[in-house]
Amino acid sequence: MKSANQGFSLIELLIASSVGLIAIGVVGSVFLSGYQAANKRSLELLLQQDVNDAFRLIKEDVLRAGYVLSGASSLKLSGASNVVYVNTANNCLAYAYHSPDGLRYNEVMYNKQDEKLVYRSTDDEITALNACSLSRVLSYSLIYDKQISVNQFDIENKPISSASATSQLIKITLAAHLKNDDAVNTAKSIQIKTRNWHNPISTASATR
């Protein structure tokens, strides 16, 4: 019979230590897996939110395109045939509208070299001849470019005509991924029907 005050043997200590290390390893592995899953989910949400925010800004802006305070006609860029000038070769939209601050000219453009979706708003006149040029200074990226790369920004433009008005149906496809993890990616599309602001009686276009 063992003595009541006899200590653990070396073998018993080793076994207990091994069991403890295994338990700690299992718990640590579960915790790490959970942390990695939560971190990946937060990055996925960041990506989805950025893309959704970019689409919302583009849609709200395009729906303003052509608006003139007088309401007498639709505002088009000089040389453009529609209220939204679409350059599919440069993956770019350009348009103008009156805002409370005055006449605004805007561009949304894909910079393929830097994988950025850029946005520029100015009161300097933009025409169909000088719009959508990468050499122009662009204000900022619509997507958080420190963590996200845009690998696709395609624009399809379809004219819509009726007896009294002409409009456009613009389809935009945007795909993006995290810079440090290509597996975290998204691709979305939206369709925007541009508004026709002009009075049906008048076919004149407002120009600056």
From TrEMBL:
The chain crosses the membrane at residues 13-35. Keywords: Membrane, Transmembrane, Transmembrane helix. It comes from the Bacteria. The keyword Transmembrane applies. InterPro entries: N_methyl_site, Prepilin_Pept-dep_B_prd. The keyword Cytoplasm does not apply. Pfam families: N_methyl. This is Pilus assembly protein PilW.
